[in-house]
Each structure stands twice: as C-alpha cells, then as structure tokens.
Write a structure and sequence with these properties.
The protein is α+β, with helices and mostly antiparallel strands and 435 residues long. The protein has 16 helices and 13 strands. The chain has a four-stranded mixed sheet. The protein has a three-stranded antiparallel sheet with strand order 11-12-13, with no helix packed on it. Strands 1-2 form a two-stranded antiparallel ribbon. The chain is globular. It starts with a helix and ends in a 17-residue tail after the last strand.
Length: 435
C-alpha cells in the first residue's frame, strides 16, 4: 500500500514505472490490484508520448515543401523507408507517424495535446482520436475545438470524445461558412467505396459500403422489402433474409432457392494439395483473399464455380526463365512470381502481389553485353511502387539468396530477410487424416 501511494505521488516517468513494476508478484488485495491497473494508465500514456517524441527527433524539423532529393523523394519518404521495417509497419503508417509526431511536438500545431500526453494526462488512444479528427481541419477551427476537447477529455469516453469533436467542428464550419456543409456532402461523394475484410469473422467476411445517405437508405429499404417482413418466417432470420436479398440483387439466386446464389462468372483462386483434391486427405484448402476453407467445400467448388486451382506439388523444374533477352516477363512467369510471393517483398508489407511491380533484383542487361540480371524467377520479385522506387533511386538494395529468399538492405545498413509465401497449412491446425 505504501508503494502504491508513492507511485501516485510521483510524476509519470522512469522512477514511477520502476517502483510500480516492483509490486509484481506481491500479495495484494483485490482493491490494490485494481489500483495497480489504474496507476499504470498515466504511465502508459507517458511512455507512448516519449516514443512519439523519439519519432519527432528522428523526423527532424518540418521539411521544406517540395522534392528534396534528386526531385524524386521527399525527406520524409527516405526516413519512412527506414522506419517502416524497423517497426514492422507499412510505409504509409511510417509516414503518418512522422507527420503526427511533428504536430504533437513543442511548437507543433497540436502542441497542447502533446504536452498533456507527455504529462500522462491523455492516453495514446485519446491522442490519436484528436489527431485523426482535427488533422486537416482549418487551423483556426482546429485550435478552438482542440481546446474544447482537451477540457473534457478526462471526463468522457473515447466514443463521446469523438462525437464531441465532430459536433464542434461541424458547428464551427456552419457558423463560419453556411455553405460548408453542402460542399462537404459534395466532396464526400467522391470517396464512396465498397471495402471487404476477409478476416472479420470466422466463416463470414465483412463487406462495408460507404455510400451517399439518400442512396444508402434507399438500398437498405429495398433490401428490407425484398426480404419480407418479420412475419415471413421460412427458417431464416430477418438478418439472413436481408443478406440473401443483397446477394440475389447482385449475383441472382437459384430459382426456388433464395439462399443459393447463381454461380458468379468470376475467377477465384483456390489452393489445395493434390491428396486432398483427390479425396485421399482432408487438409483445409485456402481461398486466396479470404483464408482457410474446409476440404469438402474446396472440392465442391470444382463442380459449380469458376476457379483457378493452385495445387501444391513439390516437383522440380516449374521455375520459368526467360534468360537475358527479354525485359518484361511473359504472362506465365508474371503469374508465377505473383503466386510465389503473394505479397510485396518489402519487409512487413501486406500489399497484394497483384498490385505490385515485378522488379529485377539485379538490373536487367539492356545492352546485350551479358552484364546484367535475367528476367527469371531467380531474379524477379513483387514490389509495390514505393519500395520499388526506393530500391531504384534511394540506395536500398536487394539480394536474391536462392529459393525465392530475398535480403533487403537499407542505406543505414539494416538487413531484413523475406521469404516467399508459405502455402503449407499450419501443422497444428491440420484435421486428422481420414484417407
């Protein structure tokens, strides 16, 4: 109890963290355990703010607008290419970290928010909410709303804080410019989109449509009408009928079978090992872009869907090689590289290989003298555009080590090894063999 009182009296920092950590393993009452959890909160906020300050130190002062290196890269881009693999995050996330660290630093646009975070009075989550809502808002309005939000941040939940900020920004915009709301609606239409999250639920995926309000409400009411009222019981719940109505509206449905969509005329890639394909094993397959599927379902796809079967088969000789006479890979080689890599080969990147360039690790010999790399599986890799540019123009290098393994080295000398996608199922997840 005395230690907890001492921690509560200390300013957030290393001394308080060490003292609070010293109670681990001691016999505590339930109330004391709860107090320990509560005391960690300002210390966590302080630690996160110190990490943000370290990023700001790495970022340096706000760069001069415009290209800074050979008119190809900004300073922040070059830093992001080092920061991203070091933290195991995407290049885009690294750029965001750099930009926001400057906004929170002393003298930055949101210096007040940064000061409260460094004092342990504002959590990292609250800080990110403030930046996420106010970054890009007209500076005068952002400063006013920041002050209002900080005054109430300690007494509201994160959801309430978000709503408070959004209401305040809308109110300020409407007061300053009565036509702002109209322009906001017009601008928002250009961001309408449909997104899919293949990992949202086990057995289901989440598809989210961002639509203008009039069309969104009209579609929802149409689906409700198509699904029938709550009294139209046929073994399906209301939510199931609405979901089936959406599927039928886009893909059609089998006559008399409202829960069975017509076969979509779209090619899907399904991964399956040969033994499971022929019914000798029951290893799970994989629907690329989603994840594991039961073996029975994958086998059934062969009879009623358009699909491209990728069978795991460790036979040598399937690597294609066009030699040194052709720069662009043909379709077969390009498909192979993208299937082999599955994702961009920049460390920790999750960009699908379908959206990537195919990069020659050793520069292609355009002179015909034989001094250069080949257009082959041994010299090609999928790289999204930013790391491809970094390799070509910013001093990053890659070395092909054989078997599709690549070593990526940054200008600071840090090395990262990336491997081709491993299609084998996790041995711990394998169901028992039935064949």
């Amino acid at each position: 109890a005395e230690v907890l009182v001492q921690v509560a009296a200390l300013e957030p920092g290393g001394e308080a963290i060490s003292l609070l950590a010293s109670v681990a393993g001691r016999t505590l009452s339930e109330d004391e355990k709860l107090t320990v959890v509560a005391l960690w909160q300002p210390l966590l906020a302080w630690a996160c703010a110190q990490e943000v300050a370290a990023v700001a130190d790495l970022a340096g002062p706000e760069p001069v607008p415009g290209p800074a290196v050979d008119e190809v890269f900004s300073v922040d881009e070059l830093i992001a290419y080092e920061l991203a693999p070091a933290l195991g995050i995407s290049i885009g996330a690294a750029k965001t970290r750099l930009r926001r660290s400057r906004l929170l630093a002393p003298g930055g646009q949101f210096a007040r928010t940064g000061a409260l975070a460094r004092a342990g009075q504002l959590s990292d989550y609250q800080t990110r909410i403030l930046l996420g809502e106010l970054e890009g808002v007209e500076p005068g309005i952002a400063a006013t709303v920041e002050g209002q939000a900080l005054a109430k941040a300690g007494s509201v939940t994160p959801t309430q804080l978000t709503r408070l900020i959004r209401r305040a920004v809308k109110k300020a915009h409407a007061k300053a410019d009565p036509q702002a709301r109209l322009r906001e609606f017009i601008a928002a239409r250009t961001t309408r989109r449909v997104e899919i999250n293949g990992e949202a639920f086990d057995g289901l995926v989440a598809m989210t449509a961002w639509l203008p309000p009039v069309e969104a409400l009209a579609i929802h009411r149409h689906l409700q009408a198509a699904a029938g009222g709550r009294d139209g019981f046929d073994g399906r719940g209301q939510d199931e009928r609405i979901a089936d109505a959406l599927t039928a509206a886009v893909l059609g449905s089998t006559p008399g079978e409202p829960t069975t969509p017509l076969t979509p005329n779209i090619t899907l890639q399904v991964l399956i090992d040969a033994a499971t394909l022929f019914g000798l094993r029951n290893h799970p397959g994989e629907l690329l872009g989603y994840g594991d599927l039961p073996a029975e379902l994958v086998r059934a796809l062969a009879g009623d869907a358009y699909w491209q079967r990728l069978v795991i088969d460790p036979i040598d000789g399937h690597l294609l090689d066009l030699g040194k006479h052709r720069y662009r890979p043909d379709r077969a080689l390009a498909d192979y590289i993208r299937a082999r890599d599955r994702f961009c080969r920049f460390p920790f990147s999750t960009r699908p290989a379908e959206d990537c360039d195919l990069d020659h690790g050793e520069a292609f010999d355009r002179t015909g003298t034989g001094n250069g790399g080949s257009t082959s599986a041994a010299n090609l890799a999928a790289l999204s555009r930013p790391p491809h540019r970094a390799k070509t123009h910013a001093g990053h290098t890659i070395t092909h080590l054989g078997n599709g393994i690549i070593r990526w080295q940054t200008p600071l000398g840090r090395s990262y090894t990336t491997h081709p996608h491993d299609y084998r199922p996790d041995p711990d997840d394998d169901p028992p063999d039935t064949g």
